[in-house]
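Sample intake sheet
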Amino acid sequence: MEELLEKLSNQELIIEIRELWHEFEGRETVEAKFAQACDKAEAVIQHNNADISSFPQGDYDINPYYKDHLFDFDSVFRELKDQIDIDSMEKIEKEGDINRVSQEHRDRWAKQNSL
């Protein structure tokens, strides 16, 4: 971030961007929590839309349930993330790749499906 800010000449803008970045990283405000959740949701949604053949093992290791805790601040965001996770696991299962997902995530998926 600092390297990007160095390229700007407007000092007031630099200060404002830096403050907003620290707010985003600190997740102390509702707006920052919202922004981080949107950032992570967007990444997983794009991942879900990609061809599964592009998934390296690392993608199976962290997705689904990626950064799951970032969505607990709001019931609507929690529900959104739960649906994104369902979409992830359904895609993986449909492709026959469920065994590539971590045991922890397979257990969670099994528990969700038994409810």
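Comment: Helices lie at 2-6, 11-26, 30-49, 57-62, 75-94, 103-114. The radius of gyration is 18 Å.
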